[in-house]
Write a structure and sequence with these properties.
With 237 residues, the chain is mainly α. The chain is built from eleven helices and two strands, in the order H-H-H-E-E-H-H-H-H-H-H-H-H. Strands 1-2 form a two-stranded antiparallel ribbon. Helix 6 packs across helix 8.
Length: 237
């Protein structure tokens, strides 16, 4: 005899959320287009304001719509950076309570950025090299300012990722750096080793400028592995 499987009723706001997503799709609404007002949706679906607002807030958190005071909600422009920001709370929980997830994230970062350095060496332009050189000079000038040094560090790595020409690679690489900076800053900064970081960045830049993909990938991997190794040593003492 089979065991009956109970079916839980859906939250009303979840149903509204699904219908709004279907409305956006069926009416082919594009970024900037307005959705019906709360009052119109209440009449259309014959439900109260709380369920409408909860569904709207959920869609806003997902980056699907924008809600502005005094105006109707509108379809939001898609943004990969906004998606990374929206994942921030979940990533904080994951990285705080799961050491294995942190290890997996570090491993993913090393593999991804090493390959992006290889691609950058193949696709480099004079403008790319000039930008990286300027960033390295700014980072050198910011050695005494820990926050500025780290901020430019992230820009240096993101600029290399951008050379792939693939915005998803760029956003994912920067997202990993951003999450580590926010929740495990020791993974991306070790005070007192600014000179070593600058030297490693210079080695990566020189390999990219020379068009040597293997050397660029190896230098990037060595750079990130060194940071990971120092973190493990520090936490073992």
């Amino acid at each position: 005899m089979s065991v009956p499987e109970s079916i839980r009723p859906r939250k009303l706001s979840d149903e509204v959320q699904e219908r709004l997503l279907r409305l956006i799709c069926e009416e082919r609404l594009t970024p900037g287009d307005a959705l019906p007002s709360e009052r119109e949706l209440m009449a259309r679906y014959e439900i109260g304001r709380p369920a409408i607002r909860e569904a709207m807030q959920s869609l806003q958190h997902m980056g699907v719509i924008e809600i502005r005071h005094g105006g109707r909600p509108r379809v939001a422009a898609p943004s990969l950076d906004a998606l990374v920001e929206q994942m921030g709370t979940a990533m904080r929980h994951l990285l705080t309570h799961s050491q294995s997830s942190l290890g997996h994230l570090k491993e993913a970062r090393v593999s991804l950025e090493a390959e992006l350095a290889r691609i950058a060496a193949a696709k480099r332009t004079d403008e790319d090299i000039a930008d990286l050189t300027a960033l390295l000079a700014k980072q050198k000038s910011a050695r005494a300012d820990g926050e500025a040094f780290l901020e430019i560090d992230g820009r240096f790595h993101r600029r290399i990722a951008a050379m792939s020409g693939n915005p998803i690679f760029e956003t994912v690489a920067h997202g990993i750096f951003t999450w580590m900076r926010a929740f495990h800053v020791e993974q991306v900064r070790k005070r007192g080793l600014e000179a070593l970081t600058l030297a490693e960045h210079r080695t990566i830049l020189d390999a990219i400028a020379a068009g040597n993909g293997e050397a660029a990938a190896r230098s990037m991997r060595d750079h990130l592995d060194r940071a990971n190794a120092l973190y493990h040593q520090e936490n073992a003492t």
